[in-house]
Amino acid sequence: MRFAAFRRGGRDGLAAADDNGAFFGRFSGEPGYPGDLADLLARGPDALGEARTALLGGHPVDLDAEPLPPLPVGGRIICVGLNYADHSRETGLTAPTYPALFTRFASTLVGHGESLVRPAVSEQFDFEGELVAIIGTPGRHIAKADALDYVAGYSIFNDATVRDYQFKASQWTAGKNFDRTAAFGPVFVTADELPPGAKGLGITTTLNGTKVQDGNTDQMIFDVPTLVSVVSEILTIEPGDIIVTGTPAGVGMARTPPLWMKPGDVCEVAIEGIGRLRNPVKAEKAPVHA
Ligand code: MG
């Protein structure tokens, strides 16, 4: 099953894909609206199928025109750095023996088609195409062998990073949390539609039509079951939490000369079997100092 959130005329709604891939949906508050995706994940395994049936009775939704991130992230956004060996090498940093976890705030997110915002204070705005695992079942201290039972589905992320701010200190929080610097979407694909752990999927990033990253999810150092298990040692994972699983080689900072995203560019991240996340880039208005 495939779901996507959208906004039209200031109203938010949820849509589901039919067997031909066309999306139909309903607005929040409209009869038959099943709730947003975070509500559905919290309600348990039958809720998604029932919601799909209700949404397919709604109106057509054009995801290129009206997308939002697939679920309103009220939970945790847990990201993994340096999780592909070739990317780890290109950064010059040591390959991790334990996942390099960091977090983002929901204020960093935009949906498919919305503009990523290059901050006024930096020109070092870099792309990172990534797979997202979306948690559907609460749990703590989950064994790796059971971990995929807790993953409801997958989506796509551009973990765009302000590089000079990332490395101003030993923590990455600054460089990863400028307003509207990450893209999430366009669709949520249930786990049963993909290989276990979303392994073996091609993942590419293109900037203005030129391929800049070309990897495969089977190149992850820590795969999805390992990440779920590791994160669940730290905190109780909850439906709607997302794990952003790291980027393959090819990022702009590792190039000579460096390749930064600039206003007017278009960045696309595609993952086989999931879809394509496309975002233009615009400049933040220059700050006005009193
Ligand atoms: Mg990343």
Describe this structure in words.
- There is one protein chain.
- This protein has 290 residues and is α+β, with helices and mostly antiparallel strands.
- It has helices at 37-43, 45-56, 85-91, 163-166, 173-176, 224-234; strands at residues 2-8, 11-17, 23-27, 59-60, 67-68, 77-81, 100-104, 109-110, 116-118, 125-126, 129-135, 151-158, 161-162, 182-184, 188-190, 202-207, 210-216, 242-244, 266-271, 275-283.
- The strands form three sheets. Strands 1, 2, 3, 4, 5, 6, 7, 8, 11, 12, 14, 15 and 18 form a 13-stranded mixed sheet that branches. It has a five-stranded mixed sheet with strand order 9-20-19-16-17, with no helix packed on it. Strands 10-13 form a two-stranded antiparallel ribbon.
- A hairpin with a 3-residue loop joins strand 19 and strand 20.
- The radius of gyration is 18 Å and the shape is globular.
- The structure holds magnesium ion (MG).
- Residues 79, 81, 128, 130, 159, 246-247 line the site of magnesium ion (MG).
Whole-number radius of gyration? 18 Å
Strand composition percent:
25-35%
- The dominant shape is globular
Counting DSSP H or I runs of 4 or more residues, the number of helices is 6
Query: Largest sheet, described in full?
Result: 13 strands, mixed
Structural class: alpha+beta
Which consecutive residue ranges, at least 5 long each, have pLDDT under 50?
none
Mean pLDDT: 95
